[in-house]
Amino acid sequence: MSQDKNKKTKSAKDQSDLDPFEINFLPQFEQGRGPRDPFVNEHGVVIGDHDYESDNSPLEQWTAETDPEVMAGDEWVHPYKDIGFQSAENRDYFEKGIVPQSGIFMHPDKNVSYDPYKEKINQKEDEAEA
Fold this sequence. Notes:
The protein has a two-stranded antiparallel sheet with strand order 1-2. The model is unreliable at 1-11 (pLDDT under 50). It has helices at residues 3-11, 88-96, 118-129, and strands at residues 39-40, 46-47. It is flat. The chain is built from three helices and two strands. By secondary structure, the protein is mainly alpha-helical.
């Protein structure tokens, strides 16, 4: 084996070594990502081991009063092992450097962000203030 090939093997993570939820990140996307191994977040939940049934997880103690925001934030997402990395757009970006196209969710002749009830809500607020 040549030295060049040996260097490539040591510097790049082999596809067969990847976790099922991992992708082969380009080097520029590996810098400062965080740990590769599973970790315990500030809520005592293990992130990155793919065992989502943790006694401390809000998912296991969910009620009608639970605010979904409790599971928002980076401490709930593993920097290397997340199912979201498997999408075609994320793979193109993180493995090939292809920037996602903007406007892919835009309809060519409809304003899908228009809220038909906004006028009624504003009218009710104005009436309440009067």
